[in-house]
Design goal:
Layout lengths: L1 E4 L1 H8 L2 H12 L4 E4 L1 H8 L4 H14 L2 E2 L4 E8 L2 E5 L7 H5 L6 H10 L8 E3 L3 H8 L6 E3 L1 H11 L1
Parallel strand pairs: 1-2, 1-6, 2-3, 6-7
Antiparallel strand pairs: 4-5
Helix pairs in contact: 1-4
Length: 158
């Protein structure tokens, strides 16, 4: 199973050390791979509370998350290895996803990456209802799930 984490999930993981241990055992056992993008890294780096930022970054390290570069960065944006453009492997309709709302650009970057033919992730884990709805409207195989939904999926792997 492969899963991409959205930023809002890291806070929830901080509160559930038992679930982190479960995830770690599945990662070590080869049953699960957890990923993040540069978008999440940048959002965490902007956390103003230094102690909180360190806790969040430590949680990512504990989970042994893997990094993937974004597959979409609108012109004028530079994220990791992507400098304004769209990978040919992206299956997301980014114009429909953003819908003219520039506040959705980072969400579109994550969604484009998670749905890329290059990776074909099983899940995008997010508690952002709007994000999940926009991903669900796309014709893609990646399934958006809440934190609680992800816990249920993980329980089936044990």
């Amino acid at each position: 199973m492969t899963a991409m984490l959205d930023t809002n999930i890291i806070d929830k993981l901080l509160l559930d050390k038992v679930f982190i241990e479960t995830l770690n055992s599945l990662v070590i056992g080869g049953k699960l791979r957890i990923f993040i993008t540069e978008v999440l890294k940048n959002q965490l780096r902007q956390t103003p509370n230094v102690k909180r930022r360190e806790e969040l970054l430590l949680t990512l390290a504990e989970l042994r998350v893997e990094y993937v570069p974004v597959e979409f960065a609108p012109y004028g944006y530079a994220y990791g290895e992507c400098y304004g453009g769209l990978s040919p492997d992206v299956t997301l309709d980014h114009q429909q996803f953003i819908g003219g709302n520039t506040k959705q650009v980072e969400d579109a970057m994550i969604a484009a990456t998670v749905t890329s033919k290059k990776y074909e992730f099983d899940y995008i884990v997010t508690d952002d209802d709007g994000f999940r709805k926009r991903v669900t409207r796309q014709s893609i195989s990646t399934k958006p799930v809440t934190f609680d939904g992800f816990k249920k999926e993980i329980a089936q792997l044990q």
